[in-house]
Amino acid sequence: PHLTIIGHITNESEGMYIVDKNDSAIAIKAQGWKHFS
Q1: Cα 10 from chain centroid?
Q2: Three-state SS at 9
Q3: Predicted confidence pLDDT, tens digits, the chain (37 residues)
Q4: Contact (CB, 8 A) for 17 and 25
Q5: Is residue 17 within a helix (H) or strand (E), and if so which, with residue range?
Q6: CA–CA dist 37, 24 (Å, integer)
Q7: What is the CA angle 32-26-20, rounded to 5?
Q8: Range 6-15, long-range pairs (CB < 8 A, 24+ positions)
Q9: Which range of residues forms the domain containing residue 1?
Q10: What angle is formed at CA 12 by the lines to CA 10 and CA 18, rounded to 5 degrees?
Q11: Per the domain annotation, does 35 fall within a domain?
């Protein structure tokens, strides 16, 4: 099949990160938005 793995699941305590081409981990943090501004 034509499948591409794009990530993996870890324990919640390990946090959420984007890993770039240089193997640098950047933390993902929900920031929301102001919908009435």
Answers
A1: 11
A2: coil
A3: 789 988 889 999 999 999 988 999 999 988 888 888 6
A4: yes
A5: strand 17-19
A6: 34
A7: 120
A8: none
A9: 1-30
A10: 60
A11: no
CA proximity to 15, closest of 23, 25, 1: 25
Instruction: Say if 37 falls within a structural domain.
Output: no
pTM greater than 0.90 (yes/no): no
Does 25 map to a domain?
A: yes
Q: How many domains does the chain have?
A: 1
State the Cα–Cα distance between residues 15 and 11, nearest whole angstrom.
8
How far is C-alpha 28 from the geometric centre of its chain's CA atoms? Answer: 5
Q: Which tokens hold the place of 35?
A: 């919908």
At 3, list the tokens: 């499948």
